[in-house]
Amino acid sequence: MTISVQDSPTVERSVTYRSALITGGSRGIGAEIARRLAGEGWHLTLAARNADALAETARRLRDESGVEVNPVVAQMNDLDQVRNLVREHEDRFGGLNALVLSAGTGTAGRVADMPAKTYERMLDVNFRAPITLIQAALPLLRKSAADDPARGAKIVALASITGVAGEAGLAAYGATKAALISLCETVSLEESANGVSATAISPGYVDTDMTAWKRDELDPSAMLRTGDIAELVLAVTRLSRNAVVPNIVLTRAGDSIWRA
C-alpha cells in the first residue's frame, strides 16, 4: 500500500511497501523469516511473549534493513491478545500482505501418559491461536489482496512433518500440526477467489532452541536450518495470486524421508 511517512519533521515522502505480521518473531524460525522479509523491504509487526527478546530483534532489524518494525508482546494462549495483534498491525500499517504463523509449542510424550494440560496448551498455541488470528486478519488480507491483484495476500503457517506422518512420542504435537495443515487447505478453498491463499510448511527437525532436547541423539548438523524455512516463505510471497501451494513438506537428508 502507499502511505506518507516523515523523513524529518518537515519532509514527507510517498512510499509503497508490503507488510507482514509474524508470530513467534523474536527468535528461531520466526526471527529468520523476519530478517529475510526485512531485507526485501517489508515492514513488520513481530509478536512474541518475551518483551526483551522481541525488542532486541526489532532493534536489530531496524538497524540492518531500515524497515519499520512494530514489536507487540502477546501470549498465544490468550485469544484476546491474539486478536489485538491484527488491530495493532492495521493501526500501524493499514494493510496486511502476509500473515506468518510461526509461534508454536511442543512437548514429547506417549498418548497413554500425556496429561490433559499438556495437550491443551499445544491445542491453544498451535491451533486455536492460528485459527483465531486468521479469522481476525481475513478482512485486512482481502483488502490488501484487492490492492495488489497480481500477487494477492498470503498466509504461511509453520506446521511439521509429524502432521503428515505420525511419529511415536509426538502424537499430540503432530495432531495439532495436522489440524493446521487442514486449516490452510480449507482457507485456500474458501478465500483464494478473494486473492488470499494459505500454505503450510511442514519440516522435520530444525536447529532451534525448540529442538535442544533432541541434541543428545540428533546432532544439530543433521537438522534443517532456519534459513531453509525462511527461503520457502519468501518463495511463497513472490507467487502470483493464481498459484496456491497447500503444503510444503521438508525432510532432513538421510535414509528416513518421512521422519522428523
Strand proportion, as a percent range, falls in 15-25%
Radius of gyration computed on alpha carbons:
18 Å
**What name does CATH use for the topology?**
Rossmann fold
Mean pLDDT: 92
Whole-number tally of structural domains: 1
Strand order of the largest sheet: 5-4-3-6-7-8-9
Number of helices: 6
What is the annotated CATH architecture? 3-Layer(aba) Sandwich
Structural class: alpha/beta
Biggest sheet statistics: 7 strands, parallel
Number of strands: 9
Question: What percent of the residues sit in helical stretches (DSSP H or I)?
Answer: 40-55%
**Uncertain regions spanning at least 5 consecutive residues:** 1-15
What's the N-to-C terminus distance?
A: 39 Å
The CATH homologous superfamily? NAD(P)-binding Rossmann-like Domain
Series of H and E elements: EEEHEHEHEHEHEHE
Task: Indicate the overall shape.
Answer: globular
InterPro entries: KR_dom, NAD(P)-bd_dom_sf, Sc_DH/Rdtase_CS, SDR_fam
Family: Belongs to the short-chain dehydrogenases/reductases (SDR) family.
Protein name: Short-subunit dehydrogenase
Keywords: Coiled coil, Oxidoreductase
What labels describe this entry?
single chain; 260 residues; alpha/beta; Rossmann fold; seven-stranded parallel β-sheet; 6 helices; 42% helix; 20% strand; globular
Walk me through what this model shows:
There is one protein chain. This protein is α/β, with parallel strands linked by helices and 260 residues long. The chain has a single domain, classed as 3-Layer(aba) Sandwich (Rossmann fold). The protein is built from six helices and nine strands; from the N terminus they run βββαβαβαβαβαβαβ. β7, α5 and β8 form a beta-alpha-beta unit. It is globular. 43% of the residues are buried. Residues 44-92 form a coiled coil. It comes from Nocardia bhagyanarayanae.
